[in-house]
Amino acid sequence: MPSLEQTCGQTCGRGGSRQLSAPRLRGDTPERAGLDPEEIRDLISEVHELTTGTRPWAAGAVLIVGRGPYLAVEEAMGWAVRYAAYDEEKEAGVELPPGSRVQMTTSTPFDLASLTKLFTSVAAVQQIERGTLGIDARVGAYLPDFRAAVVHGITVRQLLTHTSGLRPELPLYDCADDGERLERLRAEAPIGVPGTYCYSDLNMLLLQHVLERITGRSLDVLIHDGITRPLGMTATHFGPCPRAAATEDQRRPWAKAERGMLRGVVHDENAWALGGVAGHAGLFSTGRDLAVFCRALLSGGAYGPARILGPDFVELLLTPPGFGFAVDQPWFMGELAGRGAAGHTGFTGSSLVVDPVTDTFLVLLANTVHPRRRGADSRPRASAGTRVARAVRGR
User: Would you tell me how many other CB atoms lie within 10 Å of the CB of residue 9?
Assistant: First the structure.
C-alpha cells in the first residue's frame, strides 16, 4: 500500500508560528491499526458488491479506513465513468463500451457535494479562534446589506448549527444573473422557528458571505490557505476537475437544470450557478486527502508540522450539536454513532466519519448519482460504519 507521507509547510495555517509535529498517516495492516481483519475483509467485500451488477448502488467507490496514524484500508472499486447517458424510456443508464470506461482508482477525485460544508465550517471556526468572528454575533453586524438577516437577528452560531430557520435551499439556478441571486439571498427571511434545527444550504451560503466580508478574501482562497495547503491536501480544490468521477446526466424533470452528463464540474445546481465556489458545495477531493483531513481533526487540529486549529476549537466542531458536523447519526454512521462520532454526507455519494473515542475514521466516496439521481439510500454507509465499529471492538 502506498505511503501517505506528504510534504507540509513548516508553519501552521493560523499565522505562521512553529508547532509540535503530529503523526502523519502511513499505510499498514488492519491488525497493526488495531482493527479486526475479518470484519475489514467483509467490509471491503460488501463495498465491492455495491458497485457490481446492472443496477449498482454506485458505479464506483473508494473506501478508506484508518485508526491512529495507520491507514488500514485504501481500496477502489468499479468505475469512475461507466455511462454515457441515461435512457428515460428504459429507465437505465446507457453503458459505455468497456474500452471507453474509466476505472476507479484510489487517486480518483470526487465531487464532494455537501462535504464542502465541513471545510466552510472549519474556515469559520478559524476566524472564531482568531477573534475576528463572534460565535454569537449577529450576521447583520458583518452583512448590514443582508436585510432579512438583520431584521430577524440571525447569528453565526445558528448558521453553523442549522438553527437559523432558513429554508433548505433557494432556486438560485433559475435567477437571471449574479445580481438577482445576491438579492434573493439578501431578502430571504427564515420560515422556521429560530433555534429549531432545519438543515439548509443557505446557512453555509450566508456564512460564506460573512467570511469573505470580514477577511476580504474569497472562500476558495480561505480554504486553500487555511486548510488544504498547510495539510498538504494538494488534490482538494474547487472545480473544474477534469479527472473526477462522473456524476449525473443532469436533465429535467429529475434535475433542476439541463446540463447533460457531468464530469469534473460541480453537480449541485446552485453551486454551478454561483460559479462553482459555494459554501455548501463545489469542492473536489480524493480519499487520500480526506484521510489527512480526518487525521488532523482526530489529532486536535494538527497533521505533521501543520496546525489548522487548536484542540478546543476542534472540539467545538465535533461535539453536540456540532459546528457544521453531524454528531452521532446512526442513519449514515451505523454503530460508530453513540459515543461522539461526527461526520457528514454529500448528495453525490460522499461521506466521512471521525470517531474521537477510538481514534478511527471512515471515508466512503461513491458516485451514486451516475448516471442519474435516485432516492437517497444511506444503508450502505451505515453498514460500513457498523463494520468499522465492530472491527474496533473485535480487537
Answer: 14
344 and 353 Cβ atoms separated by less than 8 Å = no
* Phi, psi (degrees; rounded to nearest 5) at 274: -90, 10
Residue 1 in this model has a pLDDT that exceeds 50? no
Pairing of strands 60-67, 70-81: antiparallel
Q: How many CA atoms lie within 13 A of 110 on its CB side?
A: 38
- The neighbouring-strand residues paired with 94 are 85
User: What does the alpha-carbon distance between residue 108 and residue 256 come to, in Å, rounded to a whole number?
Assistant: 26
CB distance 387 to 353 below 8 Å: no
Question: What is d(CA 172, CA 274) in angstroms, rounded to the nearest whole number?
Answer: 8
Q: What are phi and psi of 362, to 5 degrees?
A: -135, 125
The answer to whether 207 and 159 are in contact (CB under 8 A) is yes
Nearest alpha carbon to residue 344 among 80, 113, 128: 113
Strand partners of residue 181: none
3-state helix, strand, coil in the chain (%, to 5): 35, 20, 45
pLDDT band (50, 70, 90) for residue 191:
very high
CB 72 within 8 A of CB 30: yes
Residue 93 has pLDDT above 70, yes or no: yes
Q: Which residue has the cell 463500451?
A: 97
Q: Which own/partner pairs from 270-274 qualify as long-range (CB within 8 Å, at least 24 positions apart)?
A: 270/169, 270/170, 270/171, 270/172, 270/173, 270/201, 270/205, 271/116, 272/173, 273/172, 273/173, 273/175, 273/181, 274/172, 274/178, 274/181
pLDDT interval class at 395 (50, 70, 90): low
Q: How far apart are the C-alpha atoms of 192 and 69, rounded to whole Å?
A: 43
pLDDT at 21: 81
CA distance 327 to 341: 6
Report the alpha-carbon distance of residue 261 to residue 78 in Å, rounded.
Answer: 18
Distance (Å, rounded) from C-alpha 57 to C-alpha 392?
26
Least Cα distance to 355 among 344, 345, 343 occurs for 343
Do residues 199 and 192 touch, judged by C-beta distance below 8 A?
A: no
Task: Give tens-digit pLDDT for 303-339.
Answer: 999 999 999 999 999 999 999 999 999 999 999 999 9
| 335-378 pLDDT tens trace | 999 999 999 999 999 999 999 999 999 999 999 999 999 988 99
